[in-house]
Amino acid sequence: MNTLSCRARGVIAYGYNDFPVLAGQLDLRGDNMPALAPTPLQIHHDLADYGDVAGDAALRARLAELFGVGADQVLITAGGSEALSLALLCIADPGAPVHIPRPAFPGFEQLAGLLGLSVVSYPVPGPVPVRGRTPLVVCTPHNPTGLVTAPCGAGGGDGWVIWDLSHTSPASDLLTAFTTELGPADIVVYSLSKLLRLPGARVGCLIATDLDLIAAASRAKTHLSMSTSQPGQHAALRVLRNPETAEELARRTARLAARRKRIMEAIGSSQSLRADPALDGTHLYVHTHDGSDAWQRLQQAGVVGIPGPVFHGQTSAVRLCIAQPSNVIDQAATRIQAL
Predict the structure, then answer these.
(1) pLDDT per position as a tens digit, 85-143
(2) What dihedral angle (degrees, nearest 10) is formed by the CA atoms of 85, 91, 95, 100?
(3) What residues pair up with 189 in beta bridges, in sequence order?
(4) Distance in angstroms (rounded) separating the CA atoms of residues 85 and 87
(5) Which H, E and C letters describe 39-94, residue by residue?
(6) Pairing label, strands 97-102, 273-275
(7) Strands 136-139 and 161-164, sheet pairing
(8) What are phi and psi of 101, to 5 degrees?
(9) Is the omega angle on the peptide bond into residue 141 within 30 degrees of 0, that is, cis?
(10) Helix crossing, 243-269 with 326-337: angle to 10°?
(11) How far apart are CA 74 and CA 87, in angstroms?
């Protein structure tokens, strides 16, 4: 009898449609903000050849400016998930342990499992494990809690650390400030899809000062996605080059801070809910005081998020995305405050 591999059988995947939004309910499952700017594409020309495995040279150069690194230290990937997969592939062999936060973006544990790695979870909130022989994954701002970890949070010395900065806005100098503190054993993975509102483009990047790692990741990528979609790369480059993009991203960052405060205040006024003290990013992680099902309680109040178990968390938690129009945030705050 033909059977699937244990790794394939063990994969768990969710989509937003698994948690439908009914009439009259508010959708706080994911980012619902509009695209930053029109991005006309030259589709025919872009699809005429494979392109460089490492990515479009102009896009690599622009990202190098944002991160304060050399263009040769940037590898363009098919979204943040491919960057994470390549990073894990390059630093750990099958059977090796890897520290993964929990709760967290579900792809961390699923991709580690597909690569045959042994997941050793660490709790968030809580101290980040000190870097050492076991590779470490850190997400900051953390999805789903919005908590922030500084580069020094993993300690100094040797030991691989993968930093997922996908929820850090490129609007300011935060990316450069972060990467200037990183060492040769640090790897950054980043998703342009989220912050630039180009989810369909599937463009991300892997950044490392270790050029041997960049070369190894490029070789592996040759046998995976080959080259990242050129139309997607050129769309990302057009958005990043648009002089209005930085201003709009700065405005969105300010609006997110106000919306985070609005929802956090509503949760604070609620009799049944609490939230982890989010500092950045687009998410809040909300808990019920009595341990009851948080997703169900909010869904019944007309606010739909993503249940905690999706992030390997508890049913008593739910993730809410604050990247919503202001009227949705106001309505959600009113409904949450009444709980």
Answers:
(1) 999 999 999 999 999 999 999 999 999 999 999 999 999 999 999 999 999 999 999 99
(2) -60
(3) 164, 206
(4) 5
(5) CCCCHHHHCCCCCCCCCCHHHHHHHHHHHCCCHHHEEEECHHHHHHHHHHHHHCCC
(6) unpaired
(7) parallel
(8) -70, 155
(9) yes
(10) 10
(11) 12
120: tokens are 């050793």
Of the candidates 239, 151, 233, which has an alpha carbon nearest to the alpha carbon of residue 195?
239
3-state secondary structure the chain: CCCCCHHHHCCCCCCHHHCCCCCCCEECCCCCCCCCCCCCCCHHHHCCCCCCCCCCHHHHHHHHHHHCCCHHHEEEECHHHHHHHHHHHHHCCCCCEEEEEECCCCHHHHHHHHCCCEEEEEECCCCCCCCCCCCEEEECCCCCCCCCCCHHHHCCCCCCEEEECCCCCCCCCHHHHHHCCCCCCEEEEEEHHHHCCCCCCCCEEEEECCHHHHHHHHHHHHCCCCCCCHHHHHHHHHHHHCHHHHHHHHHHHHHHHHHHHHHHHHHHHCCCEEECCCCCCCEEEEEECCCCCHHHHHHHCCEECEEHHHHCCCCCEEEEECCCCHHHHHHHHHHHHCC
| Residue that has been written with the tokens 């309505």 in this structure | 331
Q: How far is CA 302 from the centre of its chain?
A: 26
Instruction: Give residue 286's identity as a one-letter amino acid code.
Output: V
Per residue in 291-312, pLDDT tens?
999 999 999 999 999 999 999 9
Domains of the chain: 6-30+245-338 (3.90.1150.10), 46-241 (3.40.640.10)
Q: Which residues pair with 306 in a beta bridge?
A: 319
The structure tokens 């979204």 sit at 79
pTM of the model: 0.92
- Scan for tokens 């369909």, then name that residue: 200
- Chain centroid to Cα 251, Å, comes to 20
